[in-house]
Amino acid sequence: MAAIGDVARLAGVSKATASRALSGRGHVAPDTRERVERAAAEIGYIASPDAASLVTGRTKNVGVVIPFVNRWFFGEVLEGVERALLAAGYDLTLYNLSPGGPERARVFDFFLARKRVDAVLAVGVDLSSHEVDALDRRDKPLVLLGGSGAGAARLAVDDRAIGQLATEHLLHLGHTRISHLAGHGAATSPESVPGLRRRGFLEAMSAAGLTPGGRAHIVETDMSLPGGYTAGLQLLGHPGRRPTAVFAASDELAFGLMRAAERLGIAIPGELSVIGVDGHEYAELFGLTSIEQEPGEQGRLAVEVVLRLLGEGVAADPLPDSGAPLPTRLVVRSSTTSAPR
After folding, report:
1. What is the Cα–Cα distance from 316 to 306, expressed in whole angstroms?
2. What domains does the chain contain, in order, with CATH numbers?
3. In this predicted model, what pLDDT tens digit does every residue of 275-313 receive, in sequence order?
4. From CA 8, how far away is CA 39, in angstroms rounded?
5. Three-state DSSP class for residue 25
6. Cα-flanking dihedrals φ and ψ of residue 323, to 5°?
7. Pairing relation of β-strands 216-221 and 329-331?
C-alpha cells in the first residue's frame, strides 16, 4: 500500500510538504501541489481520513439532522447540502430524526455528541435546550436551517411574513371566506414553521376585519399531498361552509387540496382559489400560485455558515448572527383569481 513517504519521494518534496499539498492545509506553491497530486495519482495513494483527523482533530464530516427524506423540500435542501459539503472536501452523516422518543434521545446524547462529526446542521427541526446543550458541551458548532433552538446560528425564511403575504394575495383578489390548511401542531407550537405561517394568516385576516371562528377557518393536517387531500375533502365537503379561497402551508398540501376539489367537482380557480408555499418543481404543472423559496440554495448557504464556524472558507452571507431572512417571492399562476360573486 502506498504511503505519504512514497508520494514525497516521487514528487521530490518532504513528507510535510506532500501532506500539506494533499490536505489543502497550509501554503504550497501551485506547481508543487500539482506535482504532488500527480505523484499521488500515479502510485494510487489515498490519504487516510483517520490519520488526518489525528493530526488536525477534524473528521471532515458534518452530521445532518432532518425530519423527512421523502418529501420534496427536504430532499432539495439535502441535495444542496451534500453538493456544498463535497465541494469543500467534507462528508456527511445523515440522521432521519423522529419527532420524539428514545431514538431521538440517542441521536443527540450519543451519536452526534460523541461520534466523530465536526459540526451539526439541523434542517427544519425544533431542538430543545437539552439537545442544543449536549452539542455545545462538546464544542460542536450547530447551525439551524429553519426550525428552532435557542443560542444556535440560524438561517430561515420569514414564515410569519409568508403567511401574511399569501393571505393578503387572496384578500386583494376580493376573497373573504378564506381557510388555511396548516401543518400539525400549528396552534400548539407557535414558533414552529406551521405555527408561524398560521400566525401570519391570522394577522392578515384580523387586519382585514375577518376574525377566527367566523370566516377564517383552519384545519391542521400532515404537510403532505395525502394530508392535503384528506383535509381538503373535510374542508370542502360541506357546501354551506365552503371557502372561496385556501392558503395551504406547503405546495404539497395545495396539490392534495386541488385533487380533493377536483373529486368534489369544484372548479379551480372559478369556485376556489388556492395558494401554497415552497416553489415545488410541479407547481408550474399544477398552475399553482406559490410563495417560492429556494431549498437547494438554502442548503448551500447553511453549509457556508457551518464552514465559517469551523474556520474555513469565506464569510457566509447572511452571517449567523445577522437575522436576515432568506429570500422568497410570490409567483402568481392560474390557481388564484378574483372572488366569485
Report:
1. 9
2. 4-47 (no CATH), 61-157+295-309 (3.40.50.2300), 159-292 (3.40.50.2300)
3. 999 999 999 999 999 999 999 999 999 999 999 988 876
4. 8
5. coil
6. 70, 5
7. unpaired
